[in-house]
Design goal:
Elements lengths: L17 H5 L4 E3 L4 E8 L6 E8 L2 E8 L4 E5 L5 E2 L7 E3 L2
Length: 93
């Protein structure tokens, strides 16, 4: 007998796609921090996703390209830092 979860195509932690963003589905960083998408700039190629990431009780400004790769990140104190793989955007549910 096959499990129901084998039929689900989207799982938590999968890379995001444009349809996921357009449907306002939950997103998070690759290391599990909740993220909120505020705006998608379709004027630039690749599209730029602007949002906030929750770090403890603080919301920090982040930017990603349309494939979820982090372009702009902040550390937990709000200082600019070099984005790494843990800051990339993935599906949250």
């Amino acid at each position: 007998m096959r499990r129901f979860t084998n039929f689900i195509m989207e799982t938590k932690g999968d890379p995001i796609d444009e349809q996921w963003i357009n449907d306002d589905k939950p997103v998070m960083t690759k290391d599990g921090r909740p993220a909120i998408i505020e705006k998608v700039n379709y004027d630039e190629v690749p599209n730029i996703i602007t949002g906030k990431v929750k770090w403890n009780d603080t919301l920090l400004d982040y930017e990603w390209d349309d494939s979820g790769i982090c372009l702009k990140a902040l550390d937990r104190l709000g200082n600019p830092k070099k984005p790494d793989e843990a800051d990339n955007l993935v599906k949250g549910a």
